[in-house]
Amino acid sequence: MKGFTVRRNFILSAFAVASLVMAAGHGTAFAQAATGTAPEAEAQVKAAVAFIKANGPQKAYEEFTNGTKFKDRDLYITVYDFAGKNLAHGSNPKMVGKELLGLKDFNGVPIIENSRKLAQEKGKGWSDVYHMQNPLTKKLQAKKAYVERVGDTFVSSGIYIQE
Fold first, then answer.
1. Cβ atoms within 10 A of the Cβ of 122, count?
2. Which residue of 19, 57, 158, 161 has the fewest C-beta atoms within 10 A of its own C-beta?
3. Among residues 75, 82, 93, 71, which one has the least CA distance to residue 115?
C-alpha cells in the first residue's frame, strides 16, 4: 500500500501542476480579453449608429459621453462633425465641443482628418494607424478606429494594437 500512496500523491501533484498551467493559460487569455477586438469595435459603432437613429443625436451623444452603455473596457464611442468638432467622447468629456480636425499624433498622423476623409469617401471602414493614450493603461499605444458616417457626422470606436 505504501507504493500506492506515493504513486497516488505523485499523480495528484502532477494534476495540481497541470491545473496551475491551465489556469495560467486562462489568465493569459483572460488578460487579452481585457482589451477590445476589431469585431467588438465594429459592433459597438453599429449599435451607436442605431442608437442615434432611434433616440436622436442629443440623447445619444449624452449617453456616449456620460453614460455607461457604450463603454466597454478600452472601447468607447466618439462622434465628430465634418468640421472636426467633437460632439461626443466616451473617454474624455472635456473634448466635447472642441475643434480637433488638426489633432495629430506624435508621428504627425492627422487622427481626425483621416477618419473624416474615410467617412466622406467610403462611408465606413478602418482608419489608418495612429498613436493615442490608452485610457486603461495610460500608455501611448498604436490604435486604429472603425468609422461610420451618419449624415454630416462620423461615429467611431478604436482598438489598441500591439506593436
1. 12
2. 19
3. 82
pTM over 0.70? The answer is yes
pLDDT value at position 1? 54
How far is it, in rounded angstroms, from Cα 94 to Cα 105? 18
Query: How buried is residue 77: exposed, middle or buried, by Cβ count under 10 Å (0-12/13-18/19+)?
Result: buried
Which residues does 136 contact at the CB level (< 8 Å), separation at least 6?
A: 34, 35, 73, 74
| CATH code of the region 36-161 | 3.30.450.20
Q: Is 90 helix (H, G, I), strand (E, B) or coil?
A: coil
Q: Which helix (H) or strand (E) holds 23?
A: helix 2-32
